[in-house]
Please model this.
Amino acid sequence: MILVLKKDITEEQKNHIRSILRREGYLIRETSEGGRPLIGAIGKAGQALDFFEGLPGVEKVTPISSSFKLASRKMHQEDTLVNVGDVVIGGERIVVIAGPCAVESREQALAIARKVRKYGAVLFRGGAFKPRTSPYAFQGLGEEGLKILAEVRDKLGLGIVTEITSPAQADIMIKYVDVVQVGARNMQNFELLKCVGRMGKPVLLKRGLAATIEEWLMSAEYILSEGNEHIVLCERGIRTFEPYTRNTLDLSAIPVIKNLTHLPVIIDPSHATGIREKVSPMARAAIAAGADGLMIEVHHDPDRALSDGPQSLYPGQFGQLMRDIYVIAPVIGKQLDFGYLDKAKAVKVMKAARGEGDRRAAFLGETGTFSHKACTQYFGTEVTAVPTSSFRQIFDAVRNGEVDFGVVPLENSLTGSIHENYDLLLEYDFRIIGEITLRIMHHLIARPEAKLETIKRVFSHPQVFQQCRQFLEQHPGWELVSARDTATSVKRIKEGGLPTDAAIAGKEAASIHGMAVIQEAIETNPRNYTRFVVISTGQLKNGPRRKSSLVYSTGNQPGALYETLRIFAEKGINLVKLESRPIPGKPWEYMFYVDLEADIESPSFKSVLDELEKRTDYLRILGSY
Ligand code: PEP
Ligand code: MN
Model:
């Protein structure tokens, strides 16, 4: 059962409750939900629920009817985030674990690791103890394999995921690996589960070959009951009557799991399908269905792999899959971040260089706006997001050193450029160090007791009203009231307390303020994306850069702009954006903002910049990222 405690409960009352629960033989887990303290009590109910509800300081008591308790969403409503070094599994950034089925040699592991890291994997997999169906098949390199994996981590910075097959391996696993995997065949090896529960490492728990979701969660419960909450569930296909694939991938497990438990869930399409060509389609589907990540087998020479070659992707195929995931993720409100590890490392270096305290990034508006989401999705949990009240304030905060970064929107796919920020980019001498695109989905949000029929007044940013025009036209009687930003509008209806008021905002704003979504996705055009850039006074990290932004002006003679664009065309550089803005004080003269698909600052493009310099009156590189 869960005891929801009163907000103003005293420490004395809490102690009293704890001692009664212990006396009754309950296992106690304390958490909090939205600032409200909770006690989860697991055990046989000797006393009726009413008894506990009557204790001083208890607001209400809810039973957990499922057989799994600690794993239940009731015990912990927010998603559990599992940290593995700089990687967070379960948040809004997709985590991809990749590598061979088995570690075969140092050269093999390093060669594959270099490839998968390049394409965006953030954790490396590889079996050292292989649970093979046949005792005559390759059984893995054992501890030698673990040493190779540790070398991969040291050389490339990829955290290591590998399978434990016996409690006897616990000590060496602790020494060498970052995540211990419990394989499908061992999902109900209860001694092994208890052992990994005590190891203090994150656990990747695969679903058994023929396990129900409830049995799988009961296995997680074994690990949780040993005090280890760092569990990632991994669906890898179940045995059915269907012989065309190795197993049948149960994608419906994703929404089921998301509903039942707070633990993150990832998909392993390699073991699920057993066939290379089936892996990428199922991986894409898994992300679309809401998986927190993927585990993919990749081999640089799969024909000669010692295990699972036929289901291993070639590195190039893995790279293509990652590009697809990069495109799919924002559609469902997530991101695949190609710079994940390098960015985290760079922020750490900055932290060390600039002393104690978190690095900070300024965004426009309140917590819960899309700008806030852009900020947290770009930096993950590494950087503190700082609200501001205007775009200029963001630029000033970066200039004064109050923050290290600013996150500003530059353009929306439906409403076009945000000119103010183009002008500010010119005025302040900063660099663009990165970009992030979010899908903008608007929801009608109101108090939980409100209904569509009760609404009379709607708050939001004026641009949001424009983007939801078709929906709002169906309700001509509604009064539309402008607010500074979407999150502020939600705060306002919460404070107003009226069931006749609604706001239009993203779902994050609704959940932050405990309000309800009463109509989902009301934007007229679902292809509504905003591109944000991240600005800073210096460069965050080195490494491959795919894009550059420039601003320049040309003389006022025929063909002047054409002459500059010709330089890019002749070098085969793809131009992805051209924007012109009037130059203040010089009527009818313009600055041109250009985005290119090239790292224009790399030595190979020096001649391009030299020539551009000759053909422009003013030229500045806003950044390569
Ligand atoms: C593996 O991931 O290497 C593996 C053996 O998978 P499973 O336990 O899902 O068969
Ligand atoms: Mn395998």
Remarks:
- The mean pLDDT is 95.
- The pocket of phosphoenolpyruvate (ligand 1) is lined by residues 101, 127, 131, 163, 183-185, 206, 236, 271 (CB under 6 Å).
- Residues 269 and 283 are 6 Å apart (CA to CA).
- Residues 2-62 form a domain with the Alpha-Beta Plaits fold (CATH 3.30.70.1140).
